[in-house]
Amino acid sequence: METVLQLLISGVLLGGVYALGAMGLNLIFGVAKVVNFAHGEFLMIGMYAAYWLWKLTGLNPYAGAPVILVFGAAIGWVFYRCLIRYTIYKTEMTQVFATLGLSIVLQNLALMLFSADFLTVKVFTADWESIPFLGGYVSTTRLVSFLFAAVAMVLTLLFMKRTYTGRAIEAVSQDLSAARLVGIDVNKVLTVAFALGIGLTVLAGGVLVPSFYAFPTVGSSFVLISFVAVVLGGLGNVAGTVAGGLILGVIETLVGYLEPDLKEATHFVLLIVLLAFLPNGLFGVGGAEKEGLK
């Protein structure tokens, strides 16, 4: 029983960070109906940003989280203004190839700039690598990363529910034509949504780097995890992504304990099962994935 509790705690802590990374993907899809295949590379950028911030200034990823978030939001603004706004009204295939092409460019750019070395950030000493928690021990980096992810997710949901801009984002995601009729600046809303979505993704990469290695193709691993969390929680449902990420983290941890070789395969199997039998996820709205910008 103690082992099961330990695994559940570890899974929830890991799933919280997965949820933060997936929120950006689902936020962008929910508003703009754009599936961002470069999502993993933005998370990779966050990992490198946190590493070099620590390397150059001595600021660890947790203390530098606001800087990483602002940096990610700036990248999201550039991403929308320089690429997405020219493809957002095009066909889905145009968007797929545009974001997939960007993914390849970012991977190779990282390889040129940073080589293929595996980099990480050492935040805590050996004495503090794990701490007692609910009768067991948990990784300190996982716990702190989860707390940062939880705060970021709560603030994001409050922003969406309590501010005019947040409600405008939800209005555009629900009915673009009606949002235009009531005077909402759709282009501005899309810019903010992309800045926020990519900012959260880059922040997730920043808080992950103390627990995982940063390297040019690390995004390929995390992009599948984000897609599974989004589909599990429901396409277009940002709050549902939180539950999806937590559930995925627990499942991955349990499977990894029982059979480590099947840990990676779990993501593929879950995605196939969900798309076949539960395409709207646990909390999604039927047809949300088919609604597009007109």
TrEMBL record:
Q: Which GO terms describe its cellular component?
A: plasma membrane
- Keywords for this protein: Amino-acid transport, Cell membrane, Membrane, Transmembrane, Transmembrane helix, Transport
Q: Per its UniProt record, what CDD domains does this chain match?
A: TM_PBP1_LivH_like
Where would you find this protein in the cell? Cell membrane
Q: Give yes or no: UniProt keyword Transport.
A: yes
Q: Fetch the Pfam families from UniProt.
A: BPD_transp_2
Q: Which GO terms describe its biological process?
A: amino acid transport
Domain of life of the organism encoding this protein: Bacteria
Q: How does it sit in the membrane?
A: Multi-pass membrane protein
The primary site where this protein sits is membrane
MF terms per GO, please? Answer: transmembrane transporter activity
Please list every transmembrane segment annotated in the UniProt record, as residue ranges. Answer: 6-29, 66-84, 96-116, 136-159, 189-215, 221-248, 268-288
Family to which this protein belongs: Belongs to the binding-protein-dependent transport system permease family. LivHM subfamily.
Q: What is the official name of this protein in its record?
A: Branched-chain amino acid ABC transporter permease
* Upper classification of the organism: Bacteria, Pseudomonadati, Pseudomonadota, Betaproteobacteria, Burkholderiales
